[in-house]
Amino acid sequence: MLESYSGISKKAGMPPGSLVHVGDFDEEDTRISVVDYSPGDLEEPVVETVEDLLKFRDKKSITWVLLEGLKNVEVTELIGRHFDIHPLVLEDILNTHQRPKFEEYDDYLYIVLKGLTVADESVANESVAPDKFEVNYEQISILVLNDFVFTFKEQKDELFLPLIQRIRNQTGKIRSLGTDYLTYAIIDSIVDQNFVLLDTMDERIDAIEEELLDDPDSCTLTSIQHLKRELIDIRRATSPQRELVAAILRSDHVLFSEKVDIYFRDVYDHVLRINESVDSYRDMLAGLLDIYVSSISNKMNEVMKILTVFASIFIPLTFIAGIYGMNFEYMPELKWKWAYPTLWVFFVTIPVALLIYFKKKKWL
Amino acid sequence: MLESYSGISKKAGMPPGSLVHVGDFDEEDTRISVVDYSPGDLEEPVVETVEDLLKFRDKKSITWVLLEGLKNVEVTELIGRHFDIHPLVLEDILNTHQRPKFEEYDDYLYIVLKGLTVADESVANESVAPDKFEVNYEQISILVLNDFVFTFKEQKDELFLPLIQRIRNQTGKIRSLGTDYLTYAIIDSIVDQNFVLLDTMDERIDAIEEELLDDPDSCTLTSIQHLKRELIDIRRATSPQRELVAAILRSDHVLFSEKVDIYFRDVYDHVLRINESVDSYRDMLAGLLDIYVSSISNKMNEVMKILTVFASIFIPLTFIAGIYGMNFEYMPELKWKWAYPTLWVFFVTIPVALLIYFKKKKWL
Amino acid sequence: MLESYSGISKKAGMPPGSLVHVGDFDEEDTRISVVDYSPGDLEEPVVETVEDLLKFRDKKSITWVLLEGLKNVEVTELIGRHFDIHPLVLEDILNTHQRPKFEEYDDYLYIVLKGLTVADESVANESVAPDKFEVNYEQISILVLNDFVFTFKEQKDELFLPLIQRIRNQTGKIRSLGTDYLTYAIIDSIVDQNFVLLDTMDERIDAIEEELLDDPDSCTLTSIQHLKRELIDIRRATSPQRELVAAILRSDHVLFSEKVDIYFRDVYDHVLRINESVDSYRDMLAGLLDIYVSSISNKMNEVMKILTVFASIFIPLTFIAGIYGMNFEYMPELKWKWAYPTLWVFFVTIPVALLIYFKKKKWL
Amino acid sequence: MLESYSGISKKAGMPPGSLVHVGDFDEEDTRISVVDYSPGDLEEPVVETVEDLLKFRDKKSITWVLLEGLKNVEVTELIGRHFDIHPLVLEDILNTHQRPKFEEYDDYLYIVLKGLTVADESVANESVAPDKFEVNYEQISILVLNDFVFTFKEQKDELFLPLIQRIRNQTGKIRSLGTDYLTYAIIDSIVDQNFVLLDTMDERIDAIEEELLDDPDSCTLTSIQHLKRELIDIRRATSPQRELVAAILRSDHVLFSEKVDIYFRDVYDHVLRINESVDSYRDMLAGLLDIYVSSISNKMNEVMKILTVFASIFIPLTFIAGIYGMNFEYMPELKWKWAYPTLWVFFVTIPVALLIYFKKKKWL
Amino acid sequence: MLESYSGISKKAGMPPGSLVHVGDFDEEDTRISVVDYSPGDLEEPVVETVEDLLKFRDKKSITWVLLEGLKNVEVTELIGRHFDIHPLVLEDILNTHQRPKFEEYDDYLYIVLKGLTVADESVANESVAPDKFEVNYEQISILVLNDFVFTFKEQKDELFLPLIQRIRNQTGKIRSLGTDYLTYAIIDSIVDQNFVLLDTMDERIDAIEEELLDDPDSCTLTSIQHLKRELIDIRRATSPQRELVAAILRSDHVLFSEKVDIYFRDVYDHVLRINESVDSYRDMLAGLLDIYVSSISNKMNEVMKILTVFASIFIPLTFIAGIYGMNFEYMPELKWKWAYPTLWVFFVTIPVALLIYFKKKKWL
């Protein structure tokens, strides 16, 4: 499930800007990593407290601060105080039920996205049916300042590792460009993650389609329904991304130079493609449901034909046998010598005639 | 039901501005409460009549007047006269079948919203099926003047209690801000109430889904249909909120300072999320209906298979027994010594063969 | 039915402006009534011919001319000539298959609306099924001039009586305002009439829903379908009203002062609400159809279960009885003393066992 | 069918402006008629070749050239050369698979429309099922020049005859107005033709509805499907007309004076109404399909009930008869004197009891 | 299938501008052809390496470079370096999962399209069912420079041969116009290719429709579903073309002169028509599915009727025969002389009566 409202509804009634963490992930502590780089220089210092970050403010380098795990509310609060972030923004960072959005402030930009990953358990865990898969919806917040970029993730994972590798590589273009390009690179990493998800979705739909042609059972229906529901959630996470990237493209904030626009246009294309895919998966699942329903009807048809063939053949014969089982005193046929063999002729020809009739009706 | 038109249709033909209360709640008298505050001061005077409010007009403080229960039309009429409110606005306050809307006048603003709460009876009352729940649609009108805010509620409840608590707390930000921020806080309280409703909705949908997988009956269909209908009503109440908050954001009325925009943007996000949830619940219910219909077909399939298996096995056997129940004089088999045991071989092998056949067809 | 095209298609090929009455109502003659009023004065003269109206042109009062029955084409033609109305407008007044619309001319405004009323016959007539109701779609044209308002109705009824009463009341606000306010009052009367219709619709849907839970038959389907079709027509009549009132609000024609805008905004809200209701009725009817279809399947399921239970129990028993009805000479069981009572044990235990089995499958 | 692509796809690969006739009508030769008129003068000369038209270029009258039959490509080519028409326009005139559109050029305007007529054969031809009807989609191109109007039709018919009659009538308004009014009159003739089609559609839908209530068979389904498909095509032909007339209304080309706008607004209303009708027919057909599907289920239900009643009554009775048909030596009942009559009591009471039971279940 | 994401998802994490070929076609080497022309001159030189192209840069002629096969990444890279193309554009050319789009750069334009062709194998290969057809989705990129046009195709085929022929023809209009007209001609070739596809689609739908009326089986359902799925993909490829050509029409880039606009408007019309056709095919397939589902129900109905007729006729008769098969000592009827013939009267009249009854119910 994308979200249960249990958390949010309990928050109803609090004043705005109340910093309370609302989320589904249970990361105990917050991990802070820093990548500080300029064209010629790279530093990855060990950072324990928020105060350790302040010294980078005076440096002319670009500082990317990665925070993983949001349970420790104080860290976010301290960053807010030191870097002068609006309390509502801090609240949104911690309350992980935000819609993807892009907000411009005088000194900084705030971007929220959903990182979609296929949950590992659904692969590892044996008890889960193979055609069910869980999607993790992780909220990733990005704060873009003049020469600082903060990313707030709910989970500790290696999503940004390839990007950090590219920064470490001194000849990479990323080293020579500003925070806007870094922001692009971060968003691009998150958006491209969706393609992995769509790959998995693709496989599942193909698997169901095969199952449908092979031997559909009520399990197949549950699988279709499960995917449909997951798709509703995925759609809710991916469809506002379109609007988000479009807003970035429209924006003329000083922090975003025009040179990066072409890169964001590229992300925009990816987002469009993802949304189109999600829409066509929706159509495909609707199609699969149609096949499923028809296949049930087809099966019942077949069952009915068998019953009808059996009943239609033997019920008349049983009647004939019943006639000559009667005990009347005056039944002349009973005494005829050839009566019994003659009856056998009927017993053979009637079924044969009916079978030919059913054959002609294509029931056999 | 969201509304029955019986009330409104009877009003058809009256001149505009006729002050008649049209509503579903039976609160006898109107309760007037007042919270008057400034950064350093807080007063919660007991107020009996509308005239008691007039003295606050000269005070430089912000005065929030809470009216609960609309049956007493005179109260609204007096407020209209003293504070110079257009008769059509007064009519809209009393006629509780308004669409959520935002209207700007020269000296004041008028906002109508629907407060959605899960009816308590549906929890307490034993006779109501547990998976049915009634939603109360209470109309809440907000009048924003220069340093007055009026809220007109149909019911007496504790919806605004947490907000009043925040005002009582002297260090709260709300004390130092104007009527626009108070308006925001009121709307936020009402909108966030919807999350509680969505929580309940969520639980009911999950319960129905479990029921469907377990043992669906015609009751399940009624539950799905009931939720669907409730959702149509919820949608009608929540979807105009989007437009409403967007209109507030676009507005450049003097009573709304730009500083509060960021808070309304937050409410806007909530409203968007609520609407998206309602839409996805709709999709989910459609999916549940599909499962229900398929499960009925599946059940019938199963019934048909049992019938077919029984009939196909015993009908031919009965025919065979019928043959040797005939009374012909010349039936040589009847005299054979091993005829009867031989027949038993058939009586055993035919059903076994048919059972193997049905097994292969996966009917058993 | 909203319209049959038989009339219009026959008109195809005529030059524009040909004044031919096309309509479904058979009012023989045209009734002309006049209400002439100013703040201090009220006159309701008897008017026989169009020429009688001309004297009011020089008076400074507001003259409302009500024409009921359109068969007498000359009346409309004369009004057109005397008040200088474009022939195409006159044609639209007489051809009662117009879409609701608002057209601005230099000296006058032309508004067409559909007045929806529940046909009386459908209540009075016994032969009509009680859950069928016919809707009358009457075209009402409004011509707004400087100090003249013409309304052209197809039928003679008392739709405008309450409004005339309000004008007669000397203290009424309507007496002191201009033709624009009168126009508003007329449109408001027509639009509010829809609420009465929606009330009836509401009752019918509730009745069908009860019928569905009670005992649906093929009649229920016809009722649903009838309402659905009626709703398609209602929608076609009400949905352009939205656009119409919006156009009036946008208009800056000299005949409409800004002061009346607030009243039209009120009408606009009503129109929005009517359209939303029509849409949600549509959804509800779709839901009812789903229930109907499922209930048929449920019923068939039940029938099949009865058949299966009967057949599965008695077919095997009949076979057993058949075995011992055979006439073989060598059937040792026939001679055993306890054979017959033993068989009765089977005759009792087999059905009991099967009944328990079916009970467990929840078929009984 | 609206179009088969066989023609167009073969044209793929040709240079633009290649003049090849692509169409479904087999008119051998092209008929050229001319109506040349001014307020005081009317001429209808016999015209054989395109060159004959050139002399009207110097006359101050309005010349309407009607071309019927497009197989003779040279005629179109010559007109193009003499009146300086862009090759692409000529290509569109000849390739009769254009979408309805309106194109403005410096010296002329180009309008393409679909003329929809019910094919005569479908009425005359006995072999065609009466509820099937074919629609002819004829492309009509209109070229509007300064004082020339060309209409290119695929077929020779009398569509424009009433219009020509109006021109012949010297007192007609059309004589005194320009090419823009003539263009309006031509488009109006074509658009109004659709009402005739809708009339036929109306009748067919009513016929199907009656059939459905009476005795639906698989033929009914085919009829519904046929109408549905025809409606898809009609929609494709009529829905771009809306856009087309709107484009004409927006246009400020010198050839169209503002005075004609009111007439085009009238056409626009007609087009809107046609499109709304097509949409509601679509909804109605969907409703009819629902009834059809339900009626099949209802029928099956009835069949099943008959079977169940018969089987449930006689199968137990047959079993009882079977018991006393057994040949055991020790069956005391066989010797009782009143055994047989007693059994008859059962034979009568059991069916009666079951019939009452089924009656109560409303199966009979 | 339009695309599997396996390729793209593996690319996730790479820096932008990484030149890696992602595609489904296995063309080993890249074929470079060149058509260099001016009004008076035509050259088709053999080109081996990218460097061979450079000499045409100084010539005043238009040079069209056709590249077929994208596996050889270096070729694209070299072109990018020599002609100063942005790395992201080069990446898009090689990654063949782009959405159709149009991008403007200072010195050049970049257009991506999907070329849709019916796969030849599906015709040639015998093992493929005749009503299944595979569509090839080939990405075609067009780079428009000042006097260079590059086309990048995935496959080697003869799509552009007719166009090259037109260039070879010295009198052709294309020789005298610029790169913008060439671009138009290329896009037109690609778009018109879709009509061939629609032709095939048309034939398949007609074939399925015939099959449905003749004798539908579960294969028919698979065919419908297959077409539906293919249509989803086709739609995804063709629907962005509309936007693309509209963007070209809106563009005021120096490389596109206004004179070519009329040609692009023509392409735009084609694209609209293709999209409308795809939409109506969608509707048609939905209609075919409805017929299929109904035909299954109809078939089951027929089967049930046969069963009911047989069972209803013979079950009562068998019971009667059963009665007189009983062995009671006191059964007076058994001794009557006319009992047996009398019974035969029943044996004949009962079935006849029932058959008449069923006939009246139209079951036979």
TrEMBL record, chains A, B, C, D, E:
It is found in: Cell membrane; Membrane. It is a multi-pass membrane protein. It comes from Gimesia benthica. InterPro entries: CorA_cytoplasmic_dom, CorA_TM1_TM2, Mg/Co-transport_prot_CorA, MgTranspt_CorA/ZnTranspt_ZntB. One of its GO terms (cellular component) is plasma membrane. One of its GO terms (molecular function) is cobalt ion binding. This is Magnesium transport protein CorA. Keywords: Cell membrane, Ion transport, Magnesium, Membrane, Transmembrane, Transmembrane helix, Transport. Mediates influx of magnesium ions. It holds the Pfam family CorA. The chain crosses the membrane at residues 306-326, 338-358. Signal peptide: none annotated. Gene3D superfamilies: CorA soluble domain-like (3.30.460.20), Magnesium transport protein CorA, transmembrane region (1.20.58.340). Belongs to the CorA metal ion transporter (MIT) (TC 1.A.35) family.
